[in-house]
User: Fold this.
Amino acid sequence: MNSFLEIKTSKIRADEFQPRKDFDDKGIIELAESIKKYGLLQPILVKPDRPDLNPEDSDQTYTIIAGERRFRASLIAGFESVTAKIRVANDVREVALIENLQRKDLNKIEEARAIKDLMEKNSYTQEQVAAALSKSRPYVSNALRLLNLEPQLQKALIDEKISDAHARVLAGVKEEKDRIRLLNRIISERMSVRESEQYSKYLKNRQDVFLKDVLEQLEDLLDNRVYTKSSSKDRGVLCIEYSSEAELEKIVESLLSAR
Assistant:
């Protein structure tokens, strides 16, 4: 069911699962002034809390699917009712996310959280949620990687101190201290994305050189081949080769004596 209705603001409530969390108070006040002057040009989108009741029923209330910013501005403007489009959907979170994405109402962290919430709620794979949102799978994957960033880095993205392309570069840096160092340089030196990528490569090469040096020192100590096996981006196994039980005992003794 899709229809338009003038609804009292007292009958409308915000959705606690709304993907957008950050609202610009100054922007809302400016929007309220515009609504006072020109009215609400774009209706908000709501769902009935009681689909079994008629829209005109006095007991009917509504939850906002999309348009909470416009609704807040309408309240500030003193409106006692607003025009709303009523939609009954099986998955209002999916509808809310799509509506917000189409108008680019979400910052990148809100979008990533909403995508993750949608995947968990519906048991979607990355391919399935990408299809639902008309996005590519790499787009979804890159969005979700942002949630692994430290709060400090996420806030920098929300505050638009860095771009989402910068954030993707940061997400690829292995060590937390190096991510923070690169973040500070991006902001203080106004580094471009390309410059950030070059610096992240320098950090990776430095780590590779350090690991190689450590492995060589272990081989000299044990007189056996030492190497690593990566099981994922941040996990792996340190391996020490031996060819006999006697050689294993010698390795153990060398490690214990080196404590």
The two ends are 72 Å apart (CA to CA).
